[in-house]
């Protein structure tokens, strides 16, 4: 009985995590548990998470197909650039110290400065200034 309860609990948690909580499913599982069913595999319905669920397997496959379609149309990329944000950048620290807060208190400022620097990098790359004397 304990194994059945653990299986039922694990299934219910996975339903909640996958955003597929359905009252009908829980009632079916409750009836199966009360009837003494030992296998959860016989109960429930298959739930497909849509591609709009960020991070799901169907989302990843759809993103891959989108990337391949872009590559087919425009050609494969010449560069793969990653751009990260450092909350210890002088501009961020200077602003947060001026208003008496820490960086953790103002994530919007960090995001705004990151966006400004990213736009600057994109402008340098698209204007043909990459490799020349440009300052980030």
Number of helices: 5
Coarse shape: flat
Largest sheet geometry: none
Helicity range = 55-70%
Structural class: mainly alpha
Mean pLDDT: 75
In whole angstroms, the N-to-C terminal distance is 63 Å
Spatial extent as radius of gyration: 25 Å
Order of helices and strands: HHHHH
Low confidence ranges: 1-8, 19-23
How many domains make up the 3D coordinates?
3
* Beta strand %: under 5%
The number of E-state strands comes to 0
Q: In words, what does this structure look like?
A:
- The protein has helices at residues 2-17, 23-35, 57-74, 90-98, 107-126.
- It is built from five helices and no strands.
- It is flat, with a radius of gyration of 25 Å.
- With 136 residues, the protein is an all-alpha fold.
- 56% of the residues lie in helices and 0% in strands.
Gist of the model:
The protein is an all-alpha fold.
Fold topology:
Layout: H1 2-17, H2 23-35, H3 57-74, H4 90-98, H5 107-126
List keywords for this structure.
136 residues; mainly alpha; 3 domains; 0% strand; flat; disordered N terminus
């Amino acid at each position: 009985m304990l194994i059945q309860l653990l299986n039922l609990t694990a299934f219910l948690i996975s339903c909640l995590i996958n955003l597929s909580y359905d009252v009908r499913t829980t009632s079916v599982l409750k009836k199966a548990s009360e009837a003494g069913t030992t296998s959860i595999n016989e109960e429930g319905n298959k739930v497909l998470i849509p591609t709009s669920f960020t991070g799901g397997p169907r989302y990843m496959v759809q993103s891959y197909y989108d990337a391949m379609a872009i590559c087919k149309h425009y050609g494969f990329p010449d560069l793969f650039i990653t751009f990260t944000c450092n909350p210890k950048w002088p501009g961020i620290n200077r602003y947060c110290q001026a208003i008496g807060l820490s960086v953790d208190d103002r994530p919007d400022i960090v995001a705004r400065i990151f966006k400004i620097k990213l736009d600057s990098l994109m402008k340098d790359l698209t204007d043909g200034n990459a490799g020349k004397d440009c300052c980030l």
